[in-house]
């Protein structure tokens, strides 16, 4: 068993334990007690977003390892492979959590999203290649911090507060910078390097970008309509 798979399994178990203990660490407010599992789920997601979003930011990685911008296939800084493996463990845990606690018609979009991420990141973990590409993809977790905070504030009935309004503005700004722009850059890199990427891997990457890009544009529209044009 490769160390990467062991790390994925350990990450899955750690996030599962965190999920089970979060209700004691962060008790749900009265407005969220009808949906306790979702309260725990969002806080677990926030914990994962904070991991690559604050402790291992990709912009710093690019400054310290400028070769990353030219070679996202074979070049990756120390710790990047472990970070991607931990993220695979989290997405697996979140996939199982939603599958067990939420109706399929309510969660199919996120389940579909997680399936794409697990496949793409799983290839990077198993092959020890494209880790740099996965590291760039983790830039979106910087925005996910504010996206999850928005959900927490909604569940706590704090919509009409300055905190929610400020978070909405930051959320939208980081969405454009770290989610839409990042996906556009990844799509461009994949297109420019199509001759250097094996056909099977290129097909997986292209399908992944083709799925993720419209999903993120639709979510951006929903956020804009809900928080600014309601």
Automatic annotation (TrEMBL):
Pfam families reported for this sequence: TRAM_LAG1_CLN8
Spans traversing the lipid bilayer: 133-149, 169-191, 203-224
Keywords for this protein: Membrane, Transmembrane, Transmembrane helix
GO biological process: membrane assembly; phospholipid homeostasis; plasma membrane organization; regulation of membrane lipid distribution
Signal peptide: none
A single GO cellular-component term on record: plasma membrane
Keyword hit for Transferase: no
Residue ranges occupied by any TLC domain in the UniProt entry: 34-230
PROSITE patterns, A to Z: TLC
Compartments in which it is found: Membrane
Topology of this chain in the membrane: Multi-pass membrane protein
Name by which UniProt lists this protein: TLCD2 protein
Source organism per UniProt: Herpetotheres cachinnans (Laughing falcon)
Gene that specifies this protein: Tlcd2
């Amino acid at each position: 068993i490769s160390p990467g798979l062991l790390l994925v399994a350990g990450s899955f178990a750690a996030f599962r334990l965190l999920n089970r203990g979060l209700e004691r660490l962060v008790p749900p407010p009265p407005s969220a007690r009808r949906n306790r599992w979702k309260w725990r789920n969002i806080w677990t997601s926030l914990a994962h977003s904070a991991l690559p979003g604050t402790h291992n930011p990709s912009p710093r990685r690019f400054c310290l390892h400028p070769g990353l911008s030219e070679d996202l296939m074979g070049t990756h800084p120390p710790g990047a492979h472990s970070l991607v493996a931990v993220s695979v463990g989290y997405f697996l845990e979140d996939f199982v959590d939603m599958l067990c606690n939420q109706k399929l018609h309510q969660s199919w979009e996120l389940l579909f999203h997680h399936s794409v991420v697990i496949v793409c990141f799983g290839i990077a973990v198993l092959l020890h290649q494209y880790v740099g590409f996965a590291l760039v993809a983790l830039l979106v977790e910087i925005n996910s911090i504010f996206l999850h905070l928005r959900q927490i504030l909604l569940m706590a009935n704090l919509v009409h507060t300055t905190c929610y309004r400020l978070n909405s503005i930051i959320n939208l700004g980081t969405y454009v910078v770290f989610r839409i722009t990042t996906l556009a850059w990844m799509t461009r890199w994949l297109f420019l390097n199509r001759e250097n990427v094996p056909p099977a891997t290129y097909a997986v990457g292209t399908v992944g970008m083709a799925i993720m890009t419209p999903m993120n544009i639709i979510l951006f529209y929903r956020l804009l309509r809900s928080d600014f044009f309601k």
